[in-house]
Specification:
rod-shaped, mainly beta, 48% strand, 3-stranded antiparallel sheet
């Protein structure tokens, strides 16, 4: 078994969609779907089958992430300026 250690600067990008919904003045819900795109070899092994684990096994990969957050705001009432 061969291992291909990857280190250094690996730039990538991300894009996402989501919504933020307030139920009242102190409680909210945030839900997001994000796609992170970067050059990765998630297994760290010989992916292309050439018998050697090296940097040629690294490919552009999408990693999806779904998050849901419940938020509580304190104090529970907002001060309104006049």
């Amino acid at each position: 078994m061969s291992y291909c250690g990857q280190s250094g600067w690996k730039p990538g990008g991300n894009a996402g969609v989501g919504f933020h919904s307030f139920f009242n003045q102190w409680f909210a819900l945030n839900v997001e779907l994000r796609d992170f795109v970067a050059r990765l070899d998630p297994s760290g092994r010989d992916v292309n089958g050439d018998g050697v684990a090296n940097s040629s096994d690294v490919t552009w990969t999408s990693t999806y992430l779904v998050t849901a957050n419940l938020m509580f705001f304190l104090p529970s009432t907002a001060a309104i300026s006049q």
